[in-house]
Automatic annotation (TrEMBL):
ATP-grasp fold RimK-type domain ranges (all copies): 122-250
Database matches in InterPro entries: ATP-grasp_RimK-type (IPR013651)
Keyword Magnesium tagged: no
Protein known as: Alpha-L-glutamate ligase
Family annotation (Pfam families): RimK
Organism phylogeny: Bacteria, Bacillati, Actinomycetota, Actinomycetes, Kitasatosporales
Segments crossing the lipid bilayer: none
Length: 279
């Protein structure tokens, strides 16, 4: 089988470990979408296509390439449509709530400066509407903090979420083709701590019903490889974010699960999930 990683960072631990497993019997290559300017010239026909593509980048150019490959019949994990949806926190919240998922209440403002003028009672969590590296995620307790933040990010489109009182730990759950991995990580909204790593969490330590919620996210968002950030709201799960193809660092079995998914998809026994209306 021929497996291609769509990423500028094939040395990412999850990808590197999965590659090491796959290369024993299969061809694995990596392609940085930013280096491909002419899609038809780079992929002139079916023979130029890999058996499966793993989309571990979220730039607009990468999504355009993924769509081009999908249109030519190549399977892409995750689909371009699902990956793009998870970058828009407004669309993410709307779909989750329509599906009955316990997503934190979310409203959208076109610019943070406008939010500061209108004022908003705290505490709330303010995030960039469009998820990306080094985006805005901050807890705001009063009008002074909001004005200061707006001074740094005046034109940033944002979402505003109710702050859920918690113990300062985020529950990080990751899924690869239905296999769930879990961990605890200090919230980026908590007081600074020296240990910013993730502690693995046995699935039996999760409250009843949490696994069902996380697996339902994959169905609703048409994701095969994804992460869900949850807070414990009095024993009930509160979803605060959903990520397509997260890093899943340090989780025993995750590279094996990804390698298995890639091979099954390449062989045609698994078809990537796609959002309704995108096929």
């Amino acid at each position: 089988m021929r497996i291609c990683l769509l990423t500028p960072a094939p040395d990412h631990p999850l990808l590197a470990d999965a590659t090491a497993l796959l290369k024993r019997r299969h061809q694995v290559e990596s392609l940085d979408p930013a280096t491909v300017t002419d899609f038809p010239a780079r992929f002139p026909g079916p023979a130029a296509l890999a058996d499966v593509y793993l989309l571990k980048t979220r730039t607009p150019h990468a999504l355009a390439l993924a769509r081009f490959l999908e249109e030519r019949g190549a399977p892409v994990l995750n689909s371009a449509g699902s990956t793009e949806l998870c970058q828009d926190r407004t669309a993410m919240a709307a779909l989750a709530l329509r599906a009955g998922l316990p997503f934190v209440a979310t409203r959208t403002e076109p610019a943070l400066a406008r939010l500061a003028l209108d004022g908003t009672p705290g505490p709330v969590v303010v995030k960039s509407r469009h998820s990306r590296r080094h985006d805005l995620v901050a807890r705001v307790d009063d009008a002074g903090q909001l004005r200061a933040l707006a001074g740094q990010w005046p034109d940033e489109p944002v979402v505003v979420q109710r702050f859920t009182p918690n113990d300062g730990w985020d529950h990080k759950l990751w899924v690869v083709a239905g296999r769930v991995f879990a961990g605890l990580r200090r919230s980026e909204l908590a007081a600074p701590v020296l240990d910013k790593g993730t502690r693995s969490l046995a699935l039996r330590e999760l409250p009843d019903g949490w696994l069902d919620v996380v697996l339902r996210v994959g169905e609703v968002f048409a994701l095969d490889v994804y992460g869900v950030d949850l807070l414990d709201d009095g024993g009930a799960p509160q979803i605060v974010d959903i990520n397509a193809f997260p890093g899943i660092r340090g989780q025993a079995g995750a590279p094996e699960a990804l390698a298995d998914l890639a091979l099954r998809t390449a062989a045609g026994s698994h078809r990537p999930r796609v959002l309704p209306g995108t096929v």
